[in-house]
Amino acid sequence: MKDYDNIHFGVDYYPEHWPEERWKEDARLMAEMGLGVVRMAEFSWHKMEPREGVFDFSWLDRAISLLGSYGIKTVLGTPTAAPPAWMVNKYPEILPVDSKGITHGFGGRHHDCQSNALYRERCRIIAGKMAERYADNENVIGWQIDNELGNSHSDFCHCSSCRKAFQDWLRKKYGNIDSLNKAWGTAFWSQEYNDFSEVYTTKVTAVGENPSQMLDWKCFHSDLINDFAKNQVDIIRKLAPNQFITHNYMGFSDLVDYYELGKQLDFVCHDQYPLGYWYPGGKCENYDLAAQLDVIRSFKKKPFWIMEQESGIAGSGSMGRLPKPGQIPMWALQSVAHGADAIVFFRWRTCTQGTEQYWHGILPHSGIPGRSYDEIKTMISKVTPVMKEIKGAMPNNKVGIIYSFKQNFAFQIQTQSVGFSYISQLLKYYKMFYDKNIPVDFIAENERLCGYELVVAPLLYLMNENMASKLSDYVENGGNLVLTLRSGVKDDNNICMSDAALPGLLSKVSGCKILEYDPLGSQKVEIEVGEKRCIGTRWADIVLPDGDTEVVARYASEFYKGEAAITRHKFGRGSCWYVGTEGDEELYELLLMDIKSNTKINSGFNKQADIEIVSREKSGVSYLFLINHSDKEVSYTEMGFGSAEELLYGERLGKLAPFEVHIIKKSK
Ligand code: GLA
Ligand code: ZN
């Protein structure tokens, strides 16, 4: 693999949007601010293949080599998120069809069917041509496949090619149609099939849908996107074995199973937009930003890149807030703190044309460097030596939260209660730890749990014997487990289990039973924890503890007042909590206190003001990041750092200027 050890900062560059006479000035400015890499070409299909089979890479050759002469390397994106007009006109069958049967047209991006054989071939051809040409180019270090796979494809695609692909996928999974009929419970509403060729994609129906079919459709769709990527990965691996292959993920985006996609990639990337115009409060919450970065690191359990780090106002038609002085560097360093080894900013210069005219880059429309340029430049010169030193460092976390794409799919199909969402439940637990500076990993359902002191497993709705015994073995052997409402409800086919009372296969480890539940929607129920009163919402399991199970919290209103809401059960050498409701912040705080007093979980760092504290470790040395998310100066007390060294400012240890970050190096 080509060496990319010296790459720490870069930018997404679209030379094709600007006159070529400007490129040199761009390269000069980039080099001057310390950028070492650009990503290019991920939407430039027409520029590279203006007509079918006619290729022109001359402009890209010139851009790569000009940038190379300034010491800037290139990551090339395959342009397959934007098939050109000639292709769509000639092969209209590559356009995607939504669940209402409407074909989506040309004029935006992602107007492609990912199963279409002809489109796959066109993708192979362009990726192959690029790989052939740039495999040995000293300035090209790696590849990004497509762009944000899953983005805009949520309702796609229901064309005849996708229907056939779905049927083939089902045939492979079930072998014979009787097994499918059983797995999907097709006896309900006369949905039995005589043959796989009768099965439809999940188009809109007159009313209702089959939850088992929906779950298979979502799993199929995830596999399809993965396979769409593989189509390109295979050819690039073959032709360009010495360059890395990656992809830009989108945090908790849930169309494609990112753990699976990651298996094809050398490392994963993420696109981070803290001031996205879609956030109700004008800004993504600090804990949510941190969670997105932690989940990205968790997909491959290794450091990652940010392929698009916000560098200015984010917007299309309407725009998000203007970043305050210091915010952009602070967010870049937050990404580093959670495991990013390189930060690529989106994008170089604000574009004058097209959909994203208001998605601001490092340079404004005028191309004249301003505040964003200066702030990022200063940050890069200060931080680059530290980036070199910490490259590869990872956190050593003792808490894991299980994050499963399939469970999430099942809740998207049946939300259970108004306002209920899998990801927001997950984030409640994440925030419970974040607020106390306890760092966490996310873990896949099939991962080993034994390295973790505590595993939070929210909403294990779909359950099977293997998973249940893995969880109970973990607790029996000293692990600590938090289970929640809607666990053990269904089998893997999304059929309700009926062999035992809830939580079914998890009853033994949790030491409780649920015979009745109350889907609260946005209604509230009072909860009592000792002397304290809190609120539950969305859901209330009436938890019946077994004889040796402790009650941690009880309901304090409704007819089930006095019944258990949260329990703790000692099982083997570990403990299992069962949380029957979605709490307010106070309830989670009290739950965490109970967890702390029964486990070895402790952060060691008290939460101070708006300071986020995270660490990365390498060869017996830990790098502690203190991140000031506020626009005020904040002090932090010495927290057992002793004579530890602050890597960015040295003597100013103890006080963080607005949006400032300190990195404290400490040998263990
Ligand atoms: C995404 C995409 C980019 C661009 C930015 C800004 O993250 O990957 O191509 O569209 O958002 O909208
Ligand atoms: Zn299709």
Q: Kindly state the mean pLDDT as a whole number? A: 96
Portion in beta strands: 15-25%
Sheet with the most strands, sense and barrel status: 10 strands, mixed
Shape: globular
Q: Count of DSSP E strands?
A: 25
Our Rg estimate from Cα atoms comes to: 26 Å
Count of alpha and pi helical runs: 17
Fraction in helix: 25-40%
Task: Give the helix/strand class.
Answer: alpha/beta
Q: Reading side by side through the largest sheet, how are the strands ordered? A: 11-10-12-13-18-17-16-14-15-19
Unique ligands: alpha-D-galactopyranose, zinc ion
In whole angstroms, the N-to-C terminal distance is 32 Å
What are the low-pLDDT stretches, counting only 5+ consecutive residues below 50? none
In short:
With 668 residues, the chain is an alpha/beta fold.
Report on the architecture of this protein.
- It contains 17 helices and 25 strands.
- It has 668 residues and is of the alpha/beta class.
- Strands 11-10-12-13-18-17-16-14-15-19 form a 10-stranded mixed beta sheet, with helices on both faces. Strands 5-4-3-2-1-9-8-7-6 form a 9-stranded parallel beta sheet, with helices on one face. It has a 4-stranded antiparallel beta sheet with strand order 20-21-25-23, covered by helices on one side.
- Helix 5 packs parallel to helix 8, helix 10 packs across helix 14 (422-434) and helix 14 crosses helix 17.
- It is globular.
- The two termini are 32 Å apart.
- The model has no long low-confidence stretch (mean pLDDT 96).
- Bound molecules: alpha-D-galactopyranose and zinc ion.
- Alpha-D-galactopyranose binds at residues 147-148, 248, 271, 308, 346, 356, 359.
- Residues 96, 113, 115-116, 157, 159, 161-162 line the site of zinc ion (ZN).
